[in-house]
Design brief:
Chain A: Pfam families: FAD-oxidase_C, FAD_binding_4. Chain A: Homodimer. The complex is a heterodimer of chains A (about 625) and B (about 675). Chain A is about 35% helix and about 20% strand. Chain A has 19 helices and 21 strands. Chain B is of the alpha/beta class and about 675 residues long. Chain B has three domains: about 325 residues, Glycerol-3-phosphate (1)-acyltransferase, CATH 3.40.1130; about 110 residues, no CATH class; about 130 residues, Arc Repressor Mutant, subunit A, CATH 1.10.10. In chain B, strands 1, 2, 3, 4, 5, 6, 7, 8 and 9 form a nine-stranded mixed sheet that branches. A three-stranded antiparallel sheet of chain B has the order 10-12-11. A three-stranded antiparallel sheet of chain B has the order 15-17-16. The longest helix of chain B has about 40 residues. The chains are: A alpha+beta (about 625), B alpha/beta (about 675). Chains A and B meet through α17 of A and loops of B.
Chain lengths: ~625, ~675
């Protein structure tokens, strides 16, 4: 135990060093060729080569070293208003870092009616004394010690594993309030460690909650308050190795705790990638993707997680489940992978995954198209889907979101650029007659070899032209994608000034896309009004993924809660109403966020009684004593 | 549940609302400059306006119609092109062609006519403003009650005056047949619907797609009469649900966020068609709508018709009203472009909604002094009214008493405030000299002119002379029946059951509601609330004591109760007469025509012999209602034959119903078959 702590302290120190070194070594040519990875945080490479196996990994055991305890992402990155009252993004990790964002203030004040004078700062320091004392299962702890697997019951560690990033979770943390927390955190190092932990948990009837990247937005990580057993958070973050790469079959066998950015970077070093890039990929883990049926931005080329996995190993209370071969497709009854995919930690812990990999693309190009109206944009996307010529990513933002994206434009250095911007605006609104309050923009990302990309680009732009779309440059496109990586930081920023918000998503057949967008947005606005919200809310959507038979729609919703006594409750009521509206309009309960506990009340009506019964019977067989007791899904 | 019924209360709170006379208002400027005023309604937020041609094309090219065309082609064995041509024909016949210049022409003419025939047209400004607001937010459906041909002219006229997008109006096809006028109406926004189209699949498809497209596009309010046709009796009619379904479908299927319903209550001091209607009820066929007929009818323009009141109800959000009543995900699994029969839950909700609209229309109408007087006059024996007459001061006294009762019951009166009561009475009598006249301090019922014949007139003909005026009087009484009907049914239940027990009274009350649900509008599934309302109203006017278990007559309550019972007596008598007829008739199978004729003959005989006191049994409306009531109660069944609908009577069931109504056997609440006819 002692040595354990010692080594962890050692690691910490080393890591800090590497962070500092990284800061100093930030590449100077940040304006170089546009690359997708630039949207995300810059990796921070350790300069000190050691034999430490966590080398090059982002997530330390003690997350508090680099991440916020009561907000999104890295501690050093946040939006704030500087002394001159201009919005600024701090840190050095992102393309936007260190830049002034001149339009954000006006947009923020204009959209929400917020005011820089009215602040709602968060509790700055985690007050450990406010945290419940852990309920420990002594025998379990004793036996665990003998295995040598590191664990902790420090308040900070427990708080970190007690939540995802739902609004109510973050709001409570900012107020320094804690509900039921895991009583203990364990960091297994490998598959065998997990087997031991699960065995012990079964033996001593301890509740296990698997924890990957902690980016859940479905209340999936919340500890059920009614749970009386000791709750152990099983943090897979240290199981983060690529075990092997099979270049003949183009697969890689990876431990489940690896986070997206590490997986991608490490594969890139060998010239490969998975192409799986969910917006949360900086922090979310492979195991979490499998457990929630995640979807990546570039799924049009690479597929969603269910298309990417070839083999899964999961430890359950009944033992280990896996297939005996790696055939690319099988007909042997219902695919057992599909019991695991989307099981949301209710059946066991995913420990190792074999995934498809691809050679890194030779060329990437962003693009954007402006449409006179959202209706025309959707019609264009529909046509692109019909012709099955979707680029790696294509997203259509509505007018509000377009303006939002625009507000995030960093200060331009040259007069020439701003002059050009003005000219562009003039061309689109005056010359082409687009109504600035109706137009919307599609952002595109093409990937592949250079020639094909250019050809593909032309094809897509030609289709767009038929629907009145005008090419609007790479820059607009890239900014669109950037928005998704900084949106969670922006939420924390809003919460400093009485603004709360959240995103949610659905998937829906093509013919209903327009209707669902209109109705859900209108419903949000109406509900806010009915619930006494004093200011008009931000209610915006984008079509983010497309399929043959439908699309994924993503909603942002935020409002200024000044004057409300229980803003979170109001927020939850509105979100609930929005979800009902989605279901009434033929949308699904979730496209990729999952069900968790937030949406499980609708499971029965969406999958039928028999469907719920099927899932239940699997749960009853695999985990009769509810060891994996996070109570998600059912 | 609560907030849905508050809708009704809201209307009731409009008491001190400002009504403005729009005719008076405009007299300051010339008709010409009024017609050429700048018309600039604020645009609809949802979508840009679309032209008539675009609208028709959208309908024609809709997935739904393409599907239906294929279906019909297969069923009838004709080619798709033929069916498509037929659709084009239907659409040409149906579609409106709204053009502002014709509206201007209409406005010009209408203004001239209105100024001549009405002393004032009062409109509630608050309602107009709310409508203007609502028209920008979501598709608006205007739902006026229908008492006169003038109704929709007036509404378009008002909308034109107040810069509200002009409505497209569902009108009956006969109007389209009128030369020139039909075309003018079409260009003023009317679209035309054939009658009895349930069985015509193709027509139904075109119409429903046409209506849905208008609602979806939302740029113009859609106006239709939920009662389906002009009420011949000035009583509200049970709503027709077909159109209701069409306008709700875009909301149900999520194609629009919301649909706003605006009930409009129109009330006339005197209806232009009054004697025409009475004749129609007595079996004289309605003249075909024709342009020459219209010109001939221009003599009605020489008379004065008093005031007209147009009360725009509060805009109602369908979304709010239907919340929790409907499962919109029922449409998730079938493409929305395909026809899909609404499920029972939806039908029930639509019926509830339609009934509620009619109730709101009723509550929004203003009760005129004349209508109250008609109630009083009808309680006087008819013979006395024609021979001896009623003392004027007695009429005044009783009308004023009734006014107080009506106010207690929450009625809205259009009682001129500036005049003294006797002035009001006199001017009202003068306005209605077609029905009553005053001579030497007494009021008499007008009898029709004696036909100039050689031989003395037969007793039947003599009776008919009274019947016309009587039925006109009945119509005006009907205008305010909705104010009294709930307490009256309770009063009736008290007299039928001779009981004071609440639950027994409730059972009888429900039975009466069921029996009379064609006569009066009751919102389905609200019987017990209606009962409670009746109790509290009677309690309010101190006619009864209400406890948890009992409802008892108070010392002073007899006058009110007997008045109310007497108010409904014509209905009871007429129903009993027809029950008796059906039980005594040898034949068990008959057509509707045979039934109407036989009942009329029998009623006439009994009236002449003095056995029957009400002329209402002569009204074809009451006769038809009896038939529908019995059908609903399962005592009469309809057998479909090749040409005519035939009815088969279950005599014992009819007798039982009669016995229940007479209080000879305790009433049972019959679980009626839901009225699925859309």
């Amino acid at each position: 135990m002692a040595s354990n702590r010692n080594s962890s302290r050692h690691q910490t120190a080393r890591h800090r060093l590497s962070v500092i070194a990284g800061h100093l070594q930030r590449p100077a040519d940040s304006n170089a060729a546009v690359l997708a990875v630039e949207c995300k945080a810059q990796e921070i490479r350790p300069t000190v080569k050691t034999g430490d196996r966590s080398e090059g990994r982002t997530v330390p055991r003690r997350r508090q070293e680099i991440m916020k305890w009561n907000g999104w992402g890295y501690s050093d990155s946040r939006f704030l208003f500087n002394k001159k009252g201009q919005a600024e993004f701090t840190g050095r990790r992102y393309r936007l870092s260190g830049m002034i964002i001149p339009n954000l203030k006006d947009w923020f004040e204009g959209t929400f009616g917020a005011n820089l004078q009215h602040k709602t700062p968060a509790t700055p320091i985690l007050n450990s004394s406010a945290v419940q004392r852990p309920t420990l299962n002594e025998v379990f702890v004793e036996e665990l010690k003998s295995t040598g697997i590191p664990f902790s019951y420090e308040a900070e560690d427990r708080v970190f594993r007690s939540h995802g990033h739902c609004l109510h979770e973050i709001f409570a943390l900012r107020e320094g309030k804690f509900g039921r927390l895991p009583d203990m955190v364990i960091w297994p190092n490998c598959h065998n460690d997990v087997v031991k932990i699960v065995e012990l948990a079964c033996k001593h009837n301890v509740c296990l909650i698997p924890y990957g990247g902690g980016t859940s937005v479905s209340s999936a990580l919340e500890c059920p308050p009614e749970e009386t057993r000791s709750i152990v958070s099983l943090d897979t973050s240290q199981m983060n190795r690529i075990l092997w790469i099979d270049e003949k079959n183009l697969t890689a066998h990876v431990e489940s705790g690896i986070v997206g950015q590490d997986l991608e970077r490490l594969l890139n070093e060998s010239g490969y990638c998975t192409g799986h890039e969910p917006d949360s990929m900086e922090f979310s883990s492979l195991g979490g993707w499998v457990a929630t049926r995640a979807s990546g931005m570039k799924k049009n080329i690479y597929g969603n997680i269910e298309d990417l996995v070839v083999h899964i190993k999961m430890v359950t209370p009944r033992g280990v489940i896996e297939k005996s071969c790696q055939g690319p497709r099988m007909s042997m009854g219902p695919d057992i992978h599909h019991f695991i995919l989307g099981s949301e930690g209710t059946l066991g812990v995913v420990t190792e995954v074999t995934m498809k990999i691809r050679p890194m693309p030779e060329y990437q190009k962003y693009g954007s198209v402006v449409f006179p109206s959202f209706e025309q944009g959707v019609a264009c996307l529909r046509e692109v889907a019909r012709q099955r010529c979707a680029p790696a990513s294509i997203r259509l933002m509505d007018n509000e979101q377009f303006k939002f994206g625009h507000a995030l434009k960093p200060q331009v250095s040259s007069i020439f650029t701003s002059f050009l911007d003005g000219l562009k605006t003039f061309y689109i609104t005056k010359f082409k007659g687009f109504d600035p309050n109706r137009l919307c923009v599609a952002t595109l990302l093409f990937e592949g070899d250079r020639e094909r990309v250019l050809q593909h680009e032309k094809q897509v732009y030609d289709i767009a032209a038929k629907f009145g779309g005008l090419a609007a440059g790479e820059d607009n496109g890239q900014r669109g994608y950037m928005l998704t990586f900084v949106i969670a930081y922006l939420r924390d920023f809003g919460m400093d000034y009485y603004v709360i918000g959240e995103s949610f998503e659905t998937s829906v057949p093509w013919d209903r896309v327009l209707d669902i967008c209109r109705n859900v947005k209108a419903r949000i606005i109406r509900e806010c009004k009915d619930k006494g919200v004093q200011f008009p809310p931000l209610s915006t959507c984008r079509v983010t993924q497309m399929y043959d038979a439908g699309a994924c729609v993503y909603f942002y919703f935020a409002f200024n809660y000044r004057g409300l006594s229980d803003p979170v409750h109001v927020y939850e009521q509105v979100e609930r109403a929005a979800r009902e509206e989605i279901l009434a309009n033929g949308g699904s309960l979730s496209h990729h966020h999952g069900v968790g506990k937030l949406r499980k009340e609708w499971m029965r009506e969406t999958v039928s009684n028999v469907g719920v019964g099927m899932l239940k019977s699997v749960k009853d067989y695999v985990d009769p004593n509810n060891i994996f007791g996070n109570r998600n899904l059912l | 549940m609560e907030n849905k019924y508050r809708v009704l209360d809201k209307v009731a709170q409009q008491d001190d609302e400002e009504f403005m006379d729009i005719v008076e208002d405009k007299r300051c400027c010339s008709d010409f400059s009024f017609a050429f005023r700048t018309f600039s309604p604020p645009p609809y937020k949802g979508a840009p306006a679309c032209s008539t041609a675009e609208l028709n094309r959208a309908v024609l090219e809709s997935q739904y119609l393409r599907y239906e065309i294929k279906e019909v082609a297969v069923e009838t064995g004709s080619s798709v092109e033929e069916v498509r041509d037929e659709v084009c024909r239907i659409l040409r016949e149906m579609s409106q062609n709204l053009q502002l210049r014709f509206i201007r022409l209409m406005a010009f003419t209408a203004r001239k006519v209105f100024k001549r025939i009405f002393s004032a047209i009062y409109v509630n400004m608050e309602g107009v403003n709310a409508l203007q607001q609502a028209a920008q937010e979501s598709p608006v459906i205007l739902m006026p009650n229908h008492r006169s041909y003038v109704d929709f002219l007036v509404i378009s006229y008002i909308l034109f005056s107040y810069d509200i997008p002009l409505p497209v109006i569902a009108a009956g096809i006969p109007l389209a047949g009128m030369k020139i006028v039909g075309e003018i109406l079409r260009r003023s926004g009317a679209f035309f619907i054939r009658r009895a189209i349930r069985s015509d699949k193709l027509y139904w498809a075109v119409l429903s797609e046409y209506v849905r497209t208008i609602v979806r596009s939302g740029f113009a309010p859609l106006e239709f009469f939920v009662e389906g046709l002009r009420s011949r009796t000035l009583k509200s009619l049970p709503p027709k649900l077909g159109m209701m379904h069409m306008i709700l479908e875009p909301f149900l299927k999520g194609e629009v966020f919301d649909v706003t319903l605006v009930p409009i209550s129109i009330s006339y001091d005197r209806v232009l068609e009054e004697s025409l209607l009475a004749h129609e009820l007595l079996g004289v066929p309605k003249p075909r709508e024709s342009t020459t007929g219209l010109l001939k009818a221009s003599k009605v323009l020489r008379e004065n018709y008093g005031c007209m009141n147009v009360n725009f109800g509060r805009p109602l959000s369908v979304r709010q009203l239907c919340e929790g009543k409907l499962n919109r995900s029922q449409y998730n699994l079938i493409p929305r472009d395909l026809p899909q029969k609404p499920n029972a839950e939806t039908e029930a909700c639509e019926s509830w909604l339609a009934h509620m609209i009619v109730r709101i229309q009723e509550e929004g109408t203003l009760t005129s002094p004349w209508s109250l007087m008609a109630c009083v006059l009808l309680q006087v024996p008819t013979a006395a009214l024609t021979e001896e007459g009623l003392l004027f001061h007695q009429l005044t006294e009783q009308t004023l008493w009734l006014r107080k009762l009506a106010l207690d019951f929450g009625a809205h009166l259009s009682w001129p405030e500036k005049l003294s009561d006797s002035e009001v009475m006199s001017s009202t009598l003068a306005l209605h000299r077609s029905v009553v006249y005053r001579k030497a301090g007494r009021v008499y019922l007008v009898r029709g002119d004696e036909p100039e014949r050689k031989h003395p007139i037969s007793p039947e003909e003599d009776m008919m002379r009274t019947a016309v005026a009587f039925l006109m009087l009945v119509s005006y009484r009907n205008q305010c029946l909705h104010v009294f009907v709930r307490p009256a049914l309770l009063a009736l239940a008290m007299s039928i059951t001779k009981s004071t027990q609440r639950d027994e009274l409730l059972t009888c009350f429900c039975f009466l509601q069921e029996l009379f649900s064609n006569e009066f509008i009751f919102i389905p599934g609200r019987s017990s609330q209606d009962f409670d309302e009746a109790c509290s109203l009677l309690k309010k006017c101190k006619a009864v004591h209400v406890s948890l278990w009992d409802v008892t007559v108070s010392d002073t309550g007899l006058a009110v109760l007997s008045f109310l019972q007497e108010l409904l007596k014509p209905f009871i008598d007429s129903y009993q007469l027809m029950f008796r007829f059906l039980c005594e008739e040898r034949d068990c199978v008959f057509t509707e025509k045979e039934f109407l004729l036989a009942v009329r003959t029998l009623a006439a005989k009994l009236i002449i012999s003095g056995e029957l006191h009400t002329y209402e049994a002569l009204s074809s409306d009451v006769q038809k209602n009896v038939l529908s009531a019995l059908r609903r109660l399962g005592a009469v069944t309809r057998i479909k034959t090749s040409e005519n609908n035939e009815y088969k009577v279950n005599k014992s069931a009819v007798r039982r119903t009669g016995d229940m109504l007479a209080g000879r056997i305790p009433p049972q609440v019959v679980q009626a078959v839901p009225d699925a006819r859309l």
